[in-house]
Specification:
The structure is a single chain. It contains three helices and no strands. It is mainly alpha-helical. The protein has one domain. Bound molecules: zinc ion. Zinc ion binds next to helix 2.
C-alpha cells in the first residue's frame, strides 16, 4: 500500500481515510460526504482515485482555488 495513503494529496494532512487504516472503504467519511468537484480536479492525475482527500480539502473549495 502507498505509505502516504493516509495523507491528503492536496494539503498532505491526515485524511482520516478508512482504507488507510485497514478498514472497509464503505466506513470512510467520504462515502457520506459531498466532495467538491473543484477539489477532485485539483488532485494530480496519478493520485486521483488512489488517495483520499481530507475532509477539509474536500469541502473547502476556496482554499484550493487560491493555490
Ligand atoms: Zn487536505
Amino acid at each position: 500500500m502507498d505509505p502516504l495513503a493516509d495523507r491528503c494529496p492536496l494539503c498532505q494532512g491526515d485524511n482520516h481515510c478508512a482504507v488507510a487504516s485497514n478498514e472497509a472503504a464503505s466506513t470512510c467519511w467520504c462515502m457520506t460526504a459531498e466532495i467538491s468537484p473543484t477539489a477532485l480536479q485539483a488532485i494530480p492525475d496519478h493520485l486521483r482515485g488512489v488517495r483520499c482527500l481530507c475532509e477539509r480539502c474536500a469541502s473547502h473549495e476556496s482554499k484550493i482555488i487560491e493555490r
